[in-house]
Prior knowledge:
This protein is α/β, with parallel strands linked by helices.
Amino acid sequence: xxxxxxxxxxxxxxxxxxxxxxxxxxxxxxxxxxxxxxxxxxxxxxxxxxxxxxxxxxxxxxxxxxxxxxxxxxxxxxxxxxxxxxxxxxxxxxxxxxxxxxxxxxxxxxxxxxxxxxxxxxxxxxxxxxxxxxxxxxxxxxxxxxxxxxxxxxxxxxxxxxxxxxxxxxxxxxxxxxxxxxxxxxxxxxxxxxxxxxxxxxxxxxxxxxxxxxxxxxxxxxxxxxxxxxxxxxxxxxxxxxxxxxxxxxxxxxxxxxxxxxxxxxxxxxxxxxxxxxxxxxxxxxxxxxxxxxxxxxxxxxxxxxxxxxxxxxxxxxxxxxxxxxxxxxxxxxxxxxxxxxxxxxxxxxxxxxxxxxxxxxxxxxxxxxxxxxxxxxxxxxxxxxxxxxxxxxxxxxxxxxxxxxxxxxxxxxxxxxxxxxxxxxxxxxxxxxxxxxxxxxxxxxxxxxxxxxxxxxxxxxxxxxxxxxxxxxxxxxxxxxxxxxxxxxxxxxxxxxxxxxxxxxxxxxxxxxxxxxxxxxxxxxxxxxxxxxxxxxxxxxxxxxxxxxxxxxxxxxxxxxxxxxxxxxxxxxxxxxxxxxxxxxxxxxxxxxxxxxxxxxxxxxxxxxxxxxxxxxxxxxxxxxxxxxxxxxxxxxxxxxxxxxxxxxxxxxxxxxxxxxxxxxxxxxxxxxxxxxxxxxxxxxxxxxxxxxxxxxxxxxxxxxxxxxxxxxxxxxxxxxxxxxxxxxxxxxxxxxxxxxxxxxxxxxxxxxxxxxxxxxxxxxxxxxxxxxxxxxxxxxxxxxxxxxxxxxxxxxxxxxxxxxxxxxxxxxxxxxxxxxxxxxxxxxxxxxxxxxxxxxxxxxxxxxxxxxxxxxxxxxxxxxxxxxxxxxxxxxxxxxxxxxxxxxxxxxxxxxxxxxxxxxxxxxxxxxxxxxxxxxxxxxxxxxxxxxxxxxxxxxxxxxxxxxxxxxxxxxxxxxxxxxxxxxxxxxxxxxxxxxxxxxxxxxxxxxxxxxxxxxxxxxxxxxxxxxxxxxxxxxxxxxxxxxxxxxxxxxxxxxxxxxxxxxxxxxxxxxxxxxxxxxxxxxxxxxxxxxxxxxxxxxxxxxxxxxxxxxxxxxxxxxx
Length: 1107
């Protein structure tokens, strides 16, 4: 007997609730003749007379060969295809509309999952609609007579008499649930002949011997029957190994590898020794002032005390570095291998949503974004568990069509990567690899396939590069047509023929309709800061079972036995209106969190910048090893190191930043976890919702129900469920998705020590198809008004109020008691681009430092953190907010050598033996700790030195400017931005490092230039005075040592300032001459007799002698 259960949506809630709370969606369809047909939701809704016929059923009868489970209902598949072919728009005080697009891009769409994929023509008279396609690209025919009918006509026929227009017979609806309860022990029967095909689309025709089928395949009947114990005799060999896994000991998915004691123990000893000696040194400096130059001594001692405090904040959190390792084979055994309860090998891994953010196609080339998307679509993770979301904050049609072109090329690229195990799966990076591409490849058709895919990729790049002109020409043609229509109308109405027709210069999509986002010629409601919310499901969710390709002649490459499915891909551009604070990137990320929670609700989120691609296709699995391991339920995020390409070999400006990523972050991993630094971070969605980590003492549910889903109020006993709209907004679907995401993100309850786990097999159930109400709700949550009077940006999601929203967001999670993990993979997980130009690098650091100053003067200061933040973690976050202020003391200290040389005084009155001893011990400790740090951090000594050099360069430029900017903003409310004032163009476009030599003048360069010139002039003056005058060599050597120390650190800055072939801006020479003259005049004013003494000394003394 079949019992119709309640249909559930993505969050596991009743669909009726979603209908009642969701947005009303108005449909509009444009025919090929140019006519628009408006369709109301009442015409589209399947919940009327058809609700009883098109309900999903759970069938509790044996899945015999003549009663095979069928796919989801034809109506739901057609609905999902219809939704994926529609462009949804909506926003504040506007109706959510679904615009059915006949075509998304000008080129041909081939993949059946892609938006715009249509089948054959509808057989109904006077209808130009297209038949929907299934997962394999074949036409969906709801009747056994194979009469081709589009979705609109099919619904009309159902509402009329329920008869097929072809055979005039009633539609026979036999929609069964295609996901039997494998957890109860029922085996899915393989097809005769050992084939694994699922006989689900049509009933098996012809005479079929059931007894022979059972005998030859060793099939098992029924629901809950016992298994045969003779699988080794002609049965499935995979099951035999899985039946034995229960006898194997429990294995962890990850391990902590401590640093060798031979390295870490001396390292800690040196730090402790330096700390003690530093205290004695500062005490000696305080009690032994230089009475001859008290001003010089006072400035130096103040700077040295601050440097000691800053060093403690930076060094003490490095006392506990660790390494980690993962076991991907154990992950595969636990989640992916077939078992008696999972004979088909469906993955039990949780879902993951990828976020890619972009804002301006002019600054962020669409080809770069497209390559990032392709690397995501080809990731080595269960296809049905992956969803990719592209946030286009600029609302540009160029980005939209570039993503559509990427989907079209993914039809070839993704199966090619799976077939030949390609790494990396960014086509641009792969085809630019140096070395033998055939290394490690054994398939005989690899060379042929690679050649064809490379040719297709070159054509793909040409199409992407030609999109701006194509969109412009298309828009000009349509605008000219509209002008002709207006002129014709003016003639017919007798208007003034000399009057110029007023036609908006719109931007047009490929299907001949207005683009709802930003136009090339911005106008009202069509500009970057004023446009409707846009959402397009470019690749609909894939089927839950693998679909292998064929070797037909129309395919370039044979994909036999290769899964050709593509992950779900969604284009999103949130609504923007004048007068609203959209909170830049943090606001865009929060919009992605809300819309993805409604559409796919992956319990984990990985965010990437548009120029960062997946370099290791198995990196996501390595991250899951930590999340799914014992104790992984309290991990809020996993930060991967950032690696960059296109950096000059010498890494002049420390762009790789390896000291931070391989040193500081690895050390924090041994405390409470690394800080969140932006791209390449995998989040637990539940942690982003501002909940505390699981705590047995606070949970309401009993311990025997720890593997059961919790209600939203169970996470926090003090949480009032009625106040959820105040926290998360008024979307019911969003609120109901929270406990689902929490439950699905739990590790397996396969060990007694695992608390709040989930039972095995809970995530093998396929997701529900998309419907218009669900997508309409996703559009409503990205509107500009949705966050009003909610806690989004204050407690929930990415935190607002700082330029460095990433650090603040991670701090809030650690402050609630969560911990994070640093995942360093053997092969770089992600790679991206970084500015190698000096000016761009300085402005990048300026933005980071400005965010740190904002953090220090906000409630996110680590001094105000809760007791849940560990002490060493607190010091690390305190250093994040304080380090820019070191620049003020650093600039003063860099001028001290010049002051000492010019004045003839030193920071100490005399070179006491204790001063030299303390200085020597501190120097030896510095060298020793640096050598040991580069060993446990696994970095090079040259990289450490480059980091030290750029620390002084950025400290005297960007950090100082950030302090000024932050103080003015806090005290006076004045915001200052340092922008480029002049620019020179690079000459050699073929040189990949040409941008390195590009000199762009900026005001940030003034302090380092002044410091360098002052120290150089002071060295010349002091040397001349000591050589020919009455100067003391010991004072000169002391001052010259520190001046040389400053100049050595500024060497990369000077080299970058010179550019290539002496293409230095004239302003540099003007500054140099001006400062030299000022210093010379100042010296003459302080020493009026210096020239006379210098002249007399030069005439009387023929040489010099040391004191």
